[in-house]
Amino acid sequence: MSTTTNDDQATQLAETHELAATEMQEILSGQTQTRGETDAVSPGEIRLTDEFRQRLRELSKLTPGRGLAAIACDWAMIAACFTAAIMFPHPLVWVGCAILIAARQHALLIIMHDASHFRIVSSRRWNDRLSNWLLAWPVLVSTEGYRANHLAHHSHLNTDDDPDWTRKEGKPEWEFPKTRWALAKLLARDLCGGGFLDMLKAIGDLSSQKPKADEAKPRPWGKLCYYVLLATAVTVTGMWVPVLLLWYLPAFTILPVILRLRSIAEHFGLEGEHDLNMSRNFAAGPVERLLFAPHNVGYHLDHHLFPSVPYYNLPQLHAALLKHPEYADHAHQNDSLLGLRGKSVLNDVLPA
């Protein structure tokens, strides 16, 4: 598998999203339309300029050190939680550490999501290696399997060809608006292990997805060796109890709660009339960023519009888009996730 330079890779991916830029030009000119309609009326004409396209290329360039530093920080926090739990074996300490570890598992998955768009390093082979070793395999999924599912989600957002949508469509747990009591019961079910089988099924679905023909295919023995080495290290160090209680138990109890809230925030309780309200952006304060919205995951609408932009450049992309009045007026944006300030995502999915 050949590699390209960082700038060439950024340019290639930015050019891949020229169609998205063209569609965005129509959106920003007011030519938004419901899926299936062709007669939308334009309230104004605002074009995406060459300057914006150049800005998009700049923002699509990778800075590998930033992504790798974020991964290192996430793992450092995980290591600190394990250390604290072992040094202070009190139930409340272990519960607190389990919550923080689940939040960091989610953070690792967010960067793995970037890796599915080849947004960690410029070499696709090393992008997937690093993603699998440090992000995906520790939580029992594969980057290649997730990518096959996720790119279909991008191509067919909220349609019958969107695998994420079809897995949830028609299921009562994914129907909104929902009462506060119904949502609380659903989250409690996840927290008490009710999401365990759902997680296993999702892991199976993602692991079974096949990469495209032009992508490097993972070697099964590599993944097997990874888990054998990991199990050996845990056995030799006598860490099975902490690993089971602080890593895998949170992964199947606390993490499903976080993932459900994020999934709701990204694609539910929305108008679905045009591309600017098929998803949403939401702001997050320090607590929400720590527990639910790491690594700029709240800029999900902007990510869908321009997936070539790595997560650490999404705030700059958002600032550039806000200069277009039609985007500022029509993009679905919330002030918080859980209602800590302003209009929250919960305001959208719960009845008034």
Can you give a write-up of this model?
The protein has about 350 residues and is an all-alpha fold. The chain has one domain (about 5-350). About 60% of the residues lie in helices and about 0% in strands. It is built from 18 helices and 2 strands. The chain has helices at about 5-15, 20-30, 50-60, 65-85, 90-115, 125-135, 145-155, 165-170, 180-195, 195-210, 220-235, 240-250, 255-265, 285-290, 300-305, 315-320, 325-330, 345-350, and strands spanning about 280, 335. It has a two-stranded parallel ribbon. Helix 5 packs across helix 7 (about 145-155) and helix 9 (about 180-195) runs antiparallel to helix 13 (about 255-265).
Please give a quick description of this structure:
The chain is about 60% helix and about 0% strand. By secondary structure, it is an all-alpha fold.
User: What is the average per-residue confidence, as pLDDT, rounded to a whole number?
Assistant: 84
Helix-strand topology string: HHHHHHHHHHHHHEHHHHEH
Helix share, percent: 55-70%
Output the radius of gyration: 21 Å
Report low-confidence residues grouped into runs of 5 or more.
9-46
Total beta-strand segments? 2
Q: Indicate the structural class.
A: mainly alpha
The outline comes out as globular
N-end to C-end Cα span: 54 Å
> Main beta sheet: strand number and arrangement?
2 strands, parallel
Strand order of the largest sheet: 1-2
Number of helices: 18
Protein name: Fatty acid desaturase
Organism: Symmachiella dynata
Transmembrane segments: 67-86, 92-112, 224-249
InterPro entries: FA_desaturase_dom, Fatty_acid_desaturase
